[in-house]
């Protein structure tokens, strides 16, 4: 198959889709437009320019007609003009060409993409004042700088773009151009390009790809803790495309990795080393060097990390990543405080711990009197530093899988700047065990010491735990029978048929929190909460806990999470529990109390993972006018600007559930 066969030729209106719901709201004009793949790609680029780079929306134009004599009809997909200048060719500084193409298995080099890049290069040659260009198909990005001499015009490839207000000469300075805070989609795309290059172009498997990326991320995070003059994780304009430049990048990065490993000596384990060639290192660094992670929202950072980390879980033993909006809702309901110790005893890729860190970050900003949207870059950096300090002492976790234990630490590091304390142990046998993290974990994770435990344990009705040495340590590892008072009693005999792992994790999570005040948020299969054969488990929960909330989820977010593993998701619910004190347990009975219950119908996506938008009762999608914050770079400074954007809203009831639970805790009543 030729390279051309891999391209969808999409004339301007060929991909136009009909129907009342096939529309988008133009980010520049606020107008409702019919959707096509090309138009949506242009909108994605506009979001990147406005929300990551900080361009003024008034300096951007879509489908600009340069009206070049004797050149026929030309259209520039996105044109960027000098600040506050008339939109003419004389003021046109940057040209962006967007090409709708189907996804490619491998990322191309500039030489391989030459046929596609000719349109951009021709436009740059024809418009003398345009000095920078970008070509993108939504998956690949190619950046260029125009060099004009008396005899030729040459488009020189770049690894980074200057931000508004920087000059092209800044591309070659030591330290590189200004690194920008990333918006969520932009950072996730960059991380996915890194993974695709490592996985598809270089042929590394998912875990080896993740190892290479993790080492580089560690270097990047450490580099941002250093004074500007001491940083090494940057690139000059065309360094990734010359042999000397690639060698220079590799040398800086290797020095940065050595310093980062000395900074966090317990983060990575043996075998987590950079093994890439200089040109390969330069290709990945090119994607990461443009961003300032310390000025990027933690919620965006953990979302991007999740996009590349989910592939390292294989779905065996019922293990797969927790949907982000589900984890976020659980954290908001439990509302961990900055002084509390938080743990995930089945941490996987660290989703719950990272979302807790994002929650703490918002509290740090609130203490400064600001929000993530309105905070200055300095306030964001300060809150990030305070959140990192919190994670160093109060973000704890464990996993039996050595790879996932490192992945959890990496998620916390990427989200907060600190890896927390995540140990490789078997939570079921703790404080016993012989895995390599047990000696350090015993003093760090004593039972009864946590304020909050959050977990999504293994679900399995097939692979039950039958090991007598494990079962004997648990009430629920024994057989139970009804007593004469309508309850249940422990027979003293171990369960002969074994016990599902989620049941033992439930008991272990409660053992880990403080008696009387400790809270547990746990995802459990609905069968455990409704099957007649599990009634003794429910009785045990009521005896040992106060149930604060029960939230029943729709299946859609879990379908999207497990489909790549070829699994069928279990219907599940979130329980919020408070462990009873020893004094409570010796009482014959407990006073009645109210329990918050919610049945969620919509969680932001359909069964295929497509977003769901809010609709009116007649079924028409709603459009809202929302005030948003845009950070505009002017004269080397960042200014906060409030603008009204017309937009659709995701139909996700999970934030509403956490809001109503907060109201319920205040007065035990909920207004519907």
TrEMBL record:
Taxonomic superkingdom: Bacteria
Domain DNA methylase adenine-specific: 315-561
Keyword Transferase: yes
GO-annotated molecular function: DNA binding; N-methyltransferase activity
Gene Ontology annotations of biological process type: methylation
Ranges where the Type I restriction enzyme R protein N-terminal domain occurs: 43-148
Pfam name, any one: HSDR_N_2
UniProt keyword list: Methyltransferase, Transferase
Entry keyword annotation includes Glycosyltransferase: no
Record family assignment: Belongs to the N(4)/N(6)-methyltransferase family.
UniProt name for this protein: N-6 DNA methylase
Organism of this sequence: Solidesulfovibrio aerotolerans
């Amino acid at each position: 198959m030729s390279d051309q066969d891999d391209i969808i030729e999409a004339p301007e209106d060929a991909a136009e889709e009909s129907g009342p719901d096939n529309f988008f709201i133009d980010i520049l004009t606020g107008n409702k437009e019919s959707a096509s793949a090309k138009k949506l790609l242009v909108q994605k680029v506009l979001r990147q320019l406005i929300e990551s780079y900080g361009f003024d929306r008034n300096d951007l134009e879509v489908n600009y007609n340069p009206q070049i004599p004797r050149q026929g009809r030309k259209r520039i997909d996105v044109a960027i003009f000098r600040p506050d200048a008339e939109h003419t060719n004389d003021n046109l500084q940057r040209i962006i060409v967007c090409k709708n193409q189907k996804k490619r298995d491998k990322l191309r080099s500039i030489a391989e993409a030459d046929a596609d890049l000719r349109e951009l290069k021709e436009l740059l040659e024809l418009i003398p004042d345009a000095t920078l260009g970008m070509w993108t198909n939504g998956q690949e990005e190619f950046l260029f700088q125009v060099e004009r001499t008396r005899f030729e015009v040459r488009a020189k490839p770049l690894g980074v773009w200057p931000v508004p207000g920087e000059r092209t000469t800044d591309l070659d300075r030591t330290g590189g151009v200004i690194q920008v805070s990333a918006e969520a989609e932009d950072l996730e795309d960059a991380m996915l390009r890194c993974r695709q290059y490592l996985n598809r172009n270089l042929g590394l498997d998912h875990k080896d790809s993740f190892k290479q990326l993790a080492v580089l991320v560690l270097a990047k995070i450490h580099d941002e803790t250093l004074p500007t003059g001491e940083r090494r994780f940057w690139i000059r304009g065309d360094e990734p495309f010359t042999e000397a430049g690639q060698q220079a990048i590799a040398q800086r990065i290797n020095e940065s990795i050595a310093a980062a490993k000395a900074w966090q000596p317990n983060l990575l384990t043996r075998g987590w080393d950079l093994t890439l060639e200089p040109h390969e290192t330069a290709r990945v660094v090119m994607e990461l060097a443009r961003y300032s992670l310390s000025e990027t929202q933690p919620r965006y950072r953990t979302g991007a990390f999740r996009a590349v980390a989910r592939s390292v879980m294989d779905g065996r033993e019922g293990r797969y990543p927790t949907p982000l909006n589900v984890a976020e809702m659980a954290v908001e309901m439990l509302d961990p405080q900055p002084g509390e110790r938080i743990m995930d005893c089945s941490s996987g890729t660290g989703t719950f711990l990272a979302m807790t860190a994002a929650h703490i970050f918002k509290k740090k900003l609130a203490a400064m009197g600001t929000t993530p949207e309105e905070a200055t870059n300095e306030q964001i950096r300060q809150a990030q530093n305070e959140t990192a300090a919190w994670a160093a002492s109060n973000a704890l976790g464990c996993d039996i899988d050595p790879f996932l234990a490192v992945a959890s630490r990496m998620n916390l590091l990427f989200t907060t700047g600190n890896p927390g304390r995540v140990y490789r142990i078997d939570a079921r046998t703790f404080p016993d065990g012989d895995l390599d993290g047990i000696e350090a974990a015993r003093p760090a994770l004593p039972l009864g010491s946590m304020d909050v435990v959050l977990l999504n344990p293994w679900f399995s009705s097939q692979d039950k735990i039958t090991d007598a040495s494990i079962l004997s340590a648990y009430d629920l590892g024994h057989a139970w029978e009804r007593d004469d008072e309508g309850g249940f009693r422990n027979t003293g005999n171990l369960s002969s048929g074994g016990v599902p792992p989620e049941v033992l994790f439930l008991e272990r999570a409660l053992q880990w929190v403080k008696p009387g005040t400790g809270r547990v948020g746990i995802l459990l299969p609905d069968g455990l909460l409704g099957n007649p054969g599990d009634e003794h488990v429910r009785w045990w929960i009521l005896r040992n806990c106060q149930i604060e909330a029960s939230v029943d989820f729709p299946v859609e977010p879990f379908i999207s999470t497990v489909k790549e593993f070829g699994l069928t998701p279990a219907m599940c619910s979130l329980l919020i529990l408070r462990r009873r004190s020893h004094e409570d347990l010796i009482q014959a009975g407990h006073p009645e109390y109210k329990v918050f219950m919610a049945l969620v119908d919509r969680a932001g996506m359909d069964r295929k993972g497509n977003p769901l938008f809010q609709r009116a009762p007649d079924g028409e999608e709603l459009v809202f006018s929302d005030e948003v914050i845009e950070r505009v770079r002017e004269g080397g400074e960042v200014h906060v600007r409030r603008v009204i954007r017309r937009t659709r809203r995701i139909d996700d009831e999970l934030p509403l559930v956490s809001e109503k639970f907060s109201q319920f805790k205040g007065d035990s009543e909920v207004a519907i």
